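Appendix B, record 7
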Amino acid sequence: MYNVFMAMLTVNKLSKMYSTRTLFENVSFEVNKQDRIGFIGANGTGKTTLFRILAGEESADTGIVHIDRNTRIGIMSQITADEDSTLYESVLSAFSHLIRMEEEMEEILVAIENGDSDLDRLVKRQHTLREKYENEGGLTYKSRAAAALMGVGFKEEEHQRKIGELSGGERNKVQLARLLMSDANLLLLDEPTNHLDLQSIRFLEDYLKNYNGAFIVISHDRYFLDKVTNSTMELKNEQITLGVGNYSRYMELKSTEQESIRRKYLNTQREIKRIYGIVEQQRRFGRERNFITAESKLKQIERLKATLVEPEKDTSGIRFNFTAKETGGNDVLIAEGLKKEYDRLLFDGLDMHIRKGDRVFILGKNGCGKSTLLKILTRKEEADRGSFELGAHIKVAYYEQSMSNLNNNNTVLSEVWDAYPHYNHTQIRNALAAFLFRGDDVNKSIANLSGGEKARVQLLKMMLSGANLLLLDEPTNHLDILSREALENALDEYGGTLIVVTHDRYLVNRLADRILYMTDEGLTEYYGGYDDFLEAYNEDVKEGIRKEKEEKQASSKDKKGANLYKEQKEQRAAFTKAKTALRRNEEEIARLEDELSKVNELLASPDIGADYEKAAELSNTAAQLQEKIDILYEEWVELSEKVSELSEM
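Structure tokens (predicted):
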């Protein structure tokens, strides 16, 4: 048990440098039980490096990391399992302690059956193991592993896929599922929502809300941070600031604090300037007492300077704006009956009508065809059926999630200049500087850029295009929070039309006036932001269930005479039969569990411990009883579902 005053993890005066660059210096903080900390900061400031130091995967230059002896840290790490092992086997490896207990219990059972001479010790060990196994979730770990895989987006039929077949994003999802199933009580989560669709992100949010431990999560997903965190840690200017509240609350308090600091700074500067005026005046008077007064005032100035705290400088970095050079017609895009399939159907019968100034966001599960739809609309791919037409004077700019529209052989400078040769060298350099490519950065090869840098190149090219229709496929994926906010501001002021595919719910809430939810049957339209969509979508799900029920009832009423009577009679009989079977199943489970409890009590008694033959017999009986109980529990799940299903008919 934790002492309530004992920190799970304490960091004291930690510093880390790479070459001549300092990532952080003399940072100190604590993590306590039940802390849910959002860790924010610009890309490249050292957040992931700090995680690696906390997990013992990397060393700090100076400082101490103290981990309480009861703290078990879990961090996402590269899959080291055999490439031929399955997704399910990889996640099960998080329960290696339970698997070892199973193996030991099996070995003990074999030894008992073979008449091992140290039977008393074996029986006691088996009893201890069985109790520990059950207390630590041994009876449910396999089903929990499967549920975790489904939660992060793998269908049940995918659980037997080999690790070697997975993409990088899929491997990250397996790592996350395995970490969530581990026995860690302090999780270090580095961008856990990457590669997850909205349903999987909501699963992760629900898991973390109910998690009985502490966690620190690095994320640029502000909506996610607001949902799961209760405090915020920011790494900026080589220092860490820890504040109360989720992301939005932290930023609100920080803004208020910075405004107070700014006002105090300006007032102090004005006071210093006023006193300097007095000093100059006293010096002009030239008398001895005037010089004494001047010296006194200079000391006052030094004291004021010592109290000066400069407000934070605006480091938002990227400054840009999207401008549509032409307004275009009122009908921007009309699509009818679009269909696309590869080895499976993505969508069919898809219709769209986009008007000038619309801000349309397309949501849906991973793999439903959202990115493919944008490629069709940019004519990078062909639909199998259906057609679409752009309106008069519509110019399209496309942000591609995969970045494949960038030429890896180009430098940053040549990539942009090749696209817009009518700009002169100075204009291109100024534009690149606005997107944080300064000095020798403009000569970097596209192939060597980070994801965030490539994103900035794409956005710059879009800004210079003057397009009046922007098609954006996950534009915030590689951007840190400050860059996301700069993009949001630019899109908010944009006068053209937007069609955006994204999982960034914060972005959707701020900009969307219409959401198109995508399935294989087409698009369902919702108005408003993400929260409005979620409320309406949940209502639609309930309404769908209600209509299905009504249709069943209506269908039942349409059947006349003997057929209707026979069907209703059969349904009642099936319900009664299932309910009776469920009751008998529960009674049998209770009886066998009571019998098993009595057998375990006998096994634990000193008299039986001295009788090796009797102990072996009882141990064998206990194992048989447990096997029967496990089978009955499986039947209970099936019967419960059947009773529930029949009760709704």
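Remarks on this record: The chain has a mean pLDDT of 85. The domain at 1-72+184-245 is CATH 3.40.50.300 (Rossmann fold).
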